[in-house]
Automatic annotation (TrEMBL):
PANTHER family: GLUCOSE-METHANOL-CHOLINE GMC OXIDOREDUCTASE (PTHR11552), GMC OXIDOREDUCTASE (AFU_ORTHOLOGUE AFUA_2G01770)-RELATED (PTHR11552:SF123). It comes from Colletotrichum cuscutae. FAD binds at residue 221. GO terms for molecular function: flavin adenine dinucleotide binding; oxidoreductase activity, acting on CH-OH group of donors. The keyword Flavoprotein applies. Keywords: FAD, Flavoprotein. This is GMC oxidoreductase. It comes from the Eukaryota.
């Protein structure tokens, strides 16, 4: 019987990296990497920009949330990568660091400098090879495994680039130094960075070599084998697959993603005791925190129609520019813009969530420093076949509402019960409302060149304006949140 030194469950981004790093530190280790999905490495289509939806579908956990009470009781797609590379097999390829304040708050919370921005920066640099070696070399890497490029460096100059930049300036949102969106202080307008190599998708399981690691694909783990050591603490002895096969190891690392990791813990008898007993699962450890504290970004897409659809602003408009080969080397957008929330109303929203107590603006982490709460990216493709409309993808990056992941049965084949609790706090609702108001100011107000000359509303019978009421904006937020 083989006893592995380590079993890693899940060959996504984290599982691939940790397997690679473990073997790098100790080449004598016997490591088994187990993945529920297929081997993606030979799928050329999966690495292309315009990936076939059917190909992507076969490499996706296509979960659905429970009805969201704050979003008109709609259910939401909850997707995750399935196969070698995990999320890198299906995601959009954006390469986005958080604002340095976010990392510094981590360091303060755990009282450990290693989790601050400066503590994490060496590892960010170690990870990447930025195409342009002249952009902020002190904060970027040029020898890492992940290749990073921008649309400009690939020759994709979109016709709306200058009007969009000018419009942000008119709103008081300025370009970042060197247009570097990953400079640490990313409040402003910067070039979107993509983890693509000459336009091709990069899989984590290839970028971080798995040579020397035994990889088992198409193998669904049903539970972690856990018992008590002679000294008392719980220890993992390995895993059991769905087909009943048991595989033993000295250590097991669970890296199955935000949805499947808590599910596997519960199926293994680790989690809230009442929930485990409800499904006939033997309780090994009563741990109510398992599956709690889920939080996610709030996606808020809005759609905008051109005043002159024949102007050639977007793909499908007949503009021959988009037929040039470089426009197949990445996404159809150029800037990503990070913005903060207005102070007016922010403290009130926080107070409503915190028992009516007014927060101290000098001490509260949402008030005492500028935070990159929202991001916006304009996409010029895939919205209308004739190029007459575009989409602004706005995202609330910082949320205070918390959701959960649970189980619906003791059967590993059943989907987890996912409740992201979107718009679950007054802060979240305030942030989403103000994010949409910023989108309106940018795209359809007289405050910007986009609104004055280029965009002709959102195509609805009752378009929102800068004068729309909170109730009107909130209605749109509930309908667009995803």
């Amino acid at each position: 019987m083989i006893i592995w030194d380590c079993i890693v469950v899940g060959a996504g981004i984290a599982g691939s990296v940790v397997s690679n790093r473990l073997l790098e530190q100790d080449p004598t280790l016997k490591i088994l990497l187990v993945e529920a999905g297929p081997n993606t490495h030979e799928l050329v289509d999966l690495k292309a920009i315009e990936t076939d939806p059917e190909v992507t579908r076969n490499h996706t956990w296509s979960f659905t949330s429970v009805p969201q009470v704050n979003v008109d009781n709609r259910t939401m797609s909850a997707l995750a990568g399935k196969g070698l590379g995990g999320g890198t097999a299906i995601n959009g390829g954006a390469w986005v660091r958080g604002h340095k304040v976010d990392y510094d708050l981590w360091g303060e919370m755990v009282d450990d400098e290693r989790w601050t921005y400066e503590g994490q920066l060496p590892y960010m640099r170690k990870t990447e090879t930025l195409w342009d070696q002249t952009t902020n070399p002190s904060v970027h890497g040029h020898q890492g495994p992940v290749k990073v490029e921008t649309p400009v460096e690939m020759g994709r100059i979109f016709p709306l680039r200058q009007p969009l930049m000018d419009s942000w300036r008119e709103l008081g949102v300025n370009p970042l130094p060197s247009l570097d969106s990953n400079c640490g202080d990313n409040l402003g307008v910067g070039n979107i960075q993509e983890n693509r190599h000459h336009g091709k998708r990069q899989l984590a399981s290839q970028v971080y070599s798995l040579d020397g690691i035994t990889v088992l694909t198409d193998s669904l783990v049903a539970r972690i084998l856990v018992d008590r050591s002679p000294r008392g603490p719980l220890v993992s002895r390995g895993i059991q697959l769905e087909n009943g096969t048991k595989i033993f190891a000295r250590e097991t690392i669970l890296s199955a993603g935000a949805y499947n990791t808590p599910k596997l813990l519960m199926l293994s008898g680790i989690g809230p005791a009442d929930k485990l007993r409800e499904h006939g699962i033997n309780v090994i450890l009563d741990q109510p925190a398992v599956g709690q504290n889920l939080h996610d970004h709030i996606l808020l897409p809005t759609f905008w129609h051109f005043a002159d659809p024949s102007a050639g602003w977007a793909k499908g408009s007949g503009n021959p520019l988009f037929e040039q080969p470089q426009y197949d080397l990445g996404g159809f957008g150029d800037f990503i813009t990070a913005t903060k929330l207005p102070r007016k109303g922010l403290a009130d929203a926080i107070a409503q969530d915190e028992g009516g107590i007014s927060p101290n603006p000098m001490l509260h982490p949402l008030l005492n420093r500028d935070r990159a709460v929202s991001s916006h990216q304009l996409l010029y493709s895939g919205i209308s076949a004739d190029g007459s409309a575009i989409m602004l993808v706005s995202v609330v990056l910082i949320t205070t509402g918390r959701g959960s992941v649970s189980i619906q049965s003791a059967d590993v084949k059943d989907d987890p019960v996912i409740d992201p609790n979107f718009l679950g706090s007054n802060f979240d609702r305030f942030a989403a409302r103000e994010t949409i108001r910023e989108a309106i100011r940018l795209m359809s107000s007289n405050m910007t060149i986009m609104g004055r000359e280029i965009i002709d509303g959102d195509g609805t019978d009752h378009p929102l304006t800068v004068d729309s009421t909170d109730e009107e904006v909130d209605t749109l937020v509930r309908g667009h949140t995803g």
